[in-house]
Design brief:
The chain is α/β, with parallel strands linked by helices. The protein has 14 helices and eleven strands. Strands 2, 3, 5, 6, 7, 8, 9, 10 and 11 form a nine-stranded mixed beta sheet that branches. The chain has a two-stranded parallel sheet with strand order 1-4. Helix 3 packs antiparallel against helix 4.
Length: about 425
């Protein structure tokens, strides 16, 4: 059976649903169809699955509007899930084609790509401001950069260190940068080695008169970054050195509690991080929940969050452009991981900010707010982009600390927060294990 036959069975009758893209292309209709298909897959109903796939395929489009493109990606992921779920869906194996090959960005391409949207810049601005404030007066600053964007935040931080952390008596502090290299990293993928990246960053820092050291640690998010924690424990104690852990959209790749039987959980990682007595921890994450063990509930959460990157793409990327293909291939990879993978293979396990804040407090951290100057800088940056972007101030009732949340058309996208250990020991960068 070929793909055309799979996606074009005998026309089913769907009361209330039209096969016309113009009549049934709205988000609510598409969501219901996708959930209907998912329920058919979960109940091993091959006939109903084939019928719903046919209907969705006639409504979705990889080059249509944002809802159609989202539905197209979700449909591919559902087909992939069904094809591997049960022998009842063996007829789908020829249609479960993988997503497009992920692009490997050069440093210049990735830097330009990050600048196209506030998605990452929002967190860069908030985190850098918090870091600069926390490390004033230190002669050495050790930053552990756990970032999805491969150190794209660091050049701006170096610039700020060169101009704001300087006085007549002494130069900017020594910057030590530690990065983690893991197997099978999530997109976006970098097209050069981390060794090359380090050389570029050290060279850039030299042009700003900032002395810099660069270190790579091979560690895995799947085991709670145990190698990283162990190495940080073994690092020699350095007095008057600030230890900052910058977590930018990567901590959700550490298994959550539902996978704790396989490996250490993110709660344990945060407690081990607290034992290192860091000067500050910045936590930037997407504000969504992909952790439900119930597949239908997880799919609903996915649909109601992942429309945002598709919708924003319409404002800054030309339809059919190479950049949009790169961008949406990365989104498709994430969707496929949430829908088609289970167990340890499902690594896209976002949690809402309320759960992250709870974890941080359980690990004995307390929140630090952002000032008005940071808020103005974020607002200025947002004005450079499409009108749909905004920022709201979120005050958590547990500690009365104000955090920032990036929004798109009023919907929460990314939150920015900064944390310090309660009763932190001043002086050296960490305490002995």
């Amino acid at each position: 059976m070929n793909k055309a036959m799979i996606l074009n069975p005998t026309r089913p009758v769907w009361p209330g649903f039209s096969s016309s893209k113009s009549l049934c292309g709205d988000a609510n209709c598409m969501e219901q169809l996708l959930l209907h298909c998912a329920n058919a897959i979960e109940s091993n109903d091959a006939t109903l699955t084939q019928q719903t796939i046919w209907v969705i395929n006639n409504l979705a489009s990889s080059d249509g509007d944002s809802t159609q493109r989202l539905a197209s990606s979700l449909l591919r992921a559902l087909i992939s899930r069904a094809a591997t779920k049960s022998p009842a869906f063996s007829f789908l194996s020829v249609a479960s084609a993988s997503h497009e090959t992920l692009h490997r960005f050069s440093v210049i391409e990735l830097a330009a790509f990050v600048d196209l949207t506030p998605w990452h810049r929002f967190g860069f601005i908030a985190a850098n401001a918090a870091i600069l404030d926390a490390v004033k007066g230190y002669s050495s600053v050790h930053i552990v950069d756990l970032s999805l964007t491969h150190c794209m935040q660091i050049p701006t931080l170096i610039d700020s260190m060169a101009t704001k952390l300087i006085n007549k008596e002494q130069p900017p502090p020594l910057l030590k940068l530690t990065v983690v290299l893991s197997e099978s990293p999530p997109p976006p993928l970098l097209g050069i080695s981390y060794e090359e990246l380090g050389l570029k960053l050290v060279s850039f820092a030299a042009t700003r008169n900032v002395a810099m050291e660069f270190r790579i640690i091979y560690s895995s998010y799947s085991d709670g970054l145990s190698s990283l924690i162990e190495q940080l424990r073994l690092d020699p104690l350095v007095c008057n050195e600030a230890l900052v852990v910058n977590c930018h959209m990567m901590l959700h790749y550490i298994p959550n509690d539902t996978l704790s039987y396989l490996s250490p959980s993110r709660s344990l990682f945060l407690k081990e991080l607290r034992d290192l007595n860091p000067t500050m921890v910045t936590l930037i994450e997407e504000d969504a929940d992909f952790t439900s063990s119930n597949f239908i509930a997880r799919l609903r959460s996915l649909f109601n969050y992942m429309w945002i990157p598709y919708d924003t793409a319409d404002t800054f990327l030309t339809c059919g452009s190479e950049q949009r293909q790169w961008y949406e291939a990365d989104i498709g990879w994430r969707i496929d991981n949430v829908v088609a993978k289970e167990g340890a293979e499902r690594v896209e396990r976002l949690e809402p900010k309320s759960r992250w804040f709870e974890r941080m407090r359980e690990a004995d951290f307390t929140g630090v707010g952002f000032g008005e100057a940071v808020a103005r800088e974020v607002q200025t940056m947002l004005e450079e982009h499409a009108a749909g972007w905004g920022m709201k101030r979120d005050v958590d009732d547990s500690d009365d600390v104000e955090r920032f949340v990036l929004t798109w058309k009023g919907h929460s996208v990314v939150f920015a927060s900064a944390w310090v250990p309660m009763n932190r020991v001043d002086g050296c960068s960490h305490v002995e294990a």
